Amino acid sequence: MSDTESVNGNSSKPEAIAERIRAAILEHRLAPGAKLTEAQLCEVFGVKRGSIRQALAQLATDHLVDLEPNRGAFVASPSLQEVHEVFEMRRIIELAVVEKICGGHGMRRLKSIGSMIGRERKAFETRDFSSWIRLSGEFHTELAQLTGNTVLCDCLNGLVARSTLISALYESLGRSPCSFEDHEAILAALDAGDAKEAAALMSRHLQSVELKMLERPARGAADLHEVFGALNGAGKASSKHSPEESTRESSKASPKASLKARSAPS
């Protein structure tokens, strides 16, 4: 559903509202620390506060929104400790993914992953940064789907979403959460059935992504009508340019990541 589409019917349900807010976060249209004002969200989606609160509660469960007593809801701002913990879990899970695929799970469906990487490259070349960010994360979640393990997929889906939020905090728009060149190399190793090489490439890829996180940038004010598109037909924020976002008034500058890698971050 487009940002300018009127919200009605099923789209006004808390689940649908949560999905639109989630997309705005993961596409870097809402920055970490941005305040999610209930009154403004009610205007944008044309619903009562109860629906907004249910949607925000759902996003808080997924670690994408922080609910602060007497202050309201904010897009989550992961700490450096959380960065390390998220990527530690991703390495454990995604090395298991490549091992299962090379063991015969989903090998016949690798061609679809190759097509996805092609779309990822095209999004980069056309400066469609929202699609680029989304596809770079989907490379990892779609690989997990090939294993047929739904519990593993659910775990990785949540971790990839949190990784994308982290990249929004530590990176500017226009730098992908992942490198599609790395994805191409990983896919080639999987296609060759070389589990050892695929695991080594995946491990290096995730490590470089973690180490590339930069100091969080200063943010401006976020206009939720602009981010989601007002119901009266106001234009949506462009996905090809970095939007102005807001941070908590009491936020402090974060420490820099101790090391930086040369490859694109995730």
UniProtKB/TrEMBL annotation:
Keyword field contains rRNA-binding: no
Composition-biased stretches (Low complexity): 252-266
Residues in HTH gntR-type domain copies: 11-78
Organism lineage string: Bacteria, Pseudomonadati, Pseudomonadota, Betaproteobacteria, Burkholderiales
Biased composition (Basic and acidic residues): 241-251
GO molecular function, one term: DNA binding
Name the UniProt record assigns to this protein: DNA-binding GntR family transcriptional regulator
InterPro entries: GntR_C (IPR011711), TF_FadR/GntR_C (IPR008920), Tscrpt_reg_HTH_GntR (IPR000524), WH-like_DNA-bd_sf (IPR036388), WH_DNA-bd_sf (IPR036390)
Entry-linked Pfam families: FCD, GntR
PANTHER family the UniProt entry points to: HTH-TYPE TRANSCRIPTIONAL REPRESSOR NANR (PTHR43537:SF53), TRANSCRIPTIONAL REGULATOR, GNTR FAMILY (PTHR43537)
